[in-house]
């Protein structure tokens, strides 16, 4: 792996001094209302984002803004409790330093979680979906401005097939139904219109949301293997009685939190023990 960028090296150095030394079997980013996963860590060490140089402070309720290191299912993991979104400042690369830090600290695998709207009438609030691909409808890309040839990131297999198989095996082990689906990224922060939801469905999307895609692109840029889970919090606008709002998103994500935590724990337990 190439030497980390100066900003990433500075943040990683501070975290090592605070006891967040790698390697880690997995780094996990939690989405809206899903930060409770950090409570399941054994022997956690936590640092607020505000104390880490280059880290954003999430400005959305439901995103805690802390980095945790600890053990989950016997494996050492990093948990990013909350993310910053492109819609907060217009910067699609807002999670570049955190994801670069995950790689610099020795994580090779990234598990992303998010809350989404379902375009599948039969898949309603509380369902969990493993992402198999995405469609970027935002017009944004976190690598705009990068000058090295590394910016030309290949995206075939971005959602790692082996990790997706681990997710489905973990779901079966935990007794949790798990669908597969394609996620369409809208920039937000306003929710999608019914016409936009119909368009996304015709393009092949199963879910819509306002995050995750720039993180997948950045993770592949840094050489991380990626898997992603989406908790359905509502039906997309115009589907059934779908008329999403943020309070509904947070409440539905919180209700699904226990199932998600069990699934993530089972998934982490299937990863290599070399970083334990």
Task: Describe the overall structure.
The protein is of the alpha/beta class and 276 residues long. It has one domain (6-270): Rossmann fold, CATH 3.40.50. Helix content is 29%, strand content 24%. Strand 3 and strand 4 form a beta hairpin. Helix 4 packs across helix 8 (257-269). The longest helix is centred in the middle third of the chain and has 14 residues, at 161-174. The protein is globular and about 50 Å long. The model has no long low-confidence stretch (mean pLDDT 90).
Q: For the largest sheet, list the strands in their spatial order.
A: 5-8-7-6-9
Beta-strand content bin: 15-25%
Mean pLDDT: 90
The CATH class turns out to be: Alpha Beta
CATH homology superfamily name: Nucleoside phosphorylase domain
Please tally the β strands and state the result: 9
The name CATH uses for the topology is: Rossmann fold
Number of helices: 8
Distance between the termini: 21 Å
**What class, by secondary structure content?**
alpha/beta
What is the N-to-C succession of helices and strands? HEEEEHHEEHEHEHEHH
Helix content: 25-40%
Task: Estimate nothing, just give the exact number of structural domains.
Answer: 1
Would you identify the regions where 5 or more consecutive residues have pLDDT less than 50?
none
Architecture, CATH level 2? 3-Layer(aba) Sandwich
Largest β-sheet summary: 5 strands, mixed, barrel
The radius of gyration is: 17 Å
Shape: globular
